[in-house]
Amino acid sequence: MSHISDCVDALSTNDYPLITTGWPDDEYGIHHEAYREWVENIASNLDDETDMPPVMSYQEWKVKQRERTEDRIAEFSRSTCDCCGTTLGGSRYAVTGLPSNPSTDSSYIPYEVCEDCYYMIATGSELE
């Protein structure tokens, strides 16, 4: 059995058999409640005589927020890789376990994996 198979098998469960890179928006705090708080913060910082400036739509805000996120969640960490179990220092990346029907089931499991495992999951091939 290859290392990539072992890695994916370590992450996937019967309920969450699909493994993909990145995390869903909720893990990054990108959801409607956060957008509403952002708009309310703008409004609360205005003087009594100042009109509310135009603000971007929720969809535009989500795009801006996504531009600021990346799959690398820790530049340097000794946390255990959820895939291979290494505790060697290095970057950790976001990976998600999804149910077999993600279009109708929005549940997921967020994982943190080392750079080697992230590469194998992203490309489906072993590191040389």
Report the major sheet. 4 strands, antiparallel
Number of strands: 4
By DSSP (H or I, 4+ residues per run), the number of helices equals 4
Q: Please tell me the overall pLDDT.
A: 85
Encode the helix/strand succession as letters: HEHHEEEH
Helix-and-strand structural type: alpha+beta
Strand content: 15-25%
Helix proportion of residues, in percent?
Answer: 25-40%
Q: What's the Cα radius of gyration?
A: 19 Å
How far the N terminus sits from the C terminus, by CA atoms, comes to 16 Å
Describe this structure in words.
It is a single chain. This protein has 2 domains: 1-23 and 74-128, no CATH class; 28-45 and 56-70, no CATH class. Strands 1, 2, 3 and 4 form a 4-stranded antiparallel beta sheet that branches. It starts with a helix and ends in a 5-residue tail after the last helix. Helix content is 32%, strand content 20%. It is α+β, with helices and mostly antiparallel strands and 128 residues long.
What is the structure about, briefly put?
Helix content is 32%, strand content 20%. It has 128 residues and is an alpha+beta fold. Strands 1, 2, 3 and 4 form a four-stranded antiparallel beta sheet that branches.
What topology does this entry show?
Elements: H1 3-11, E1 18-21, H2 32-44, H3 58-67, E2 72-77, E3 90-98, E4 109-114, H4 115-123
Antiparallel strand pairs: 1-3, 2-3, 3-4
What are its keywords?
single chain, 128 residues, alpha+beta
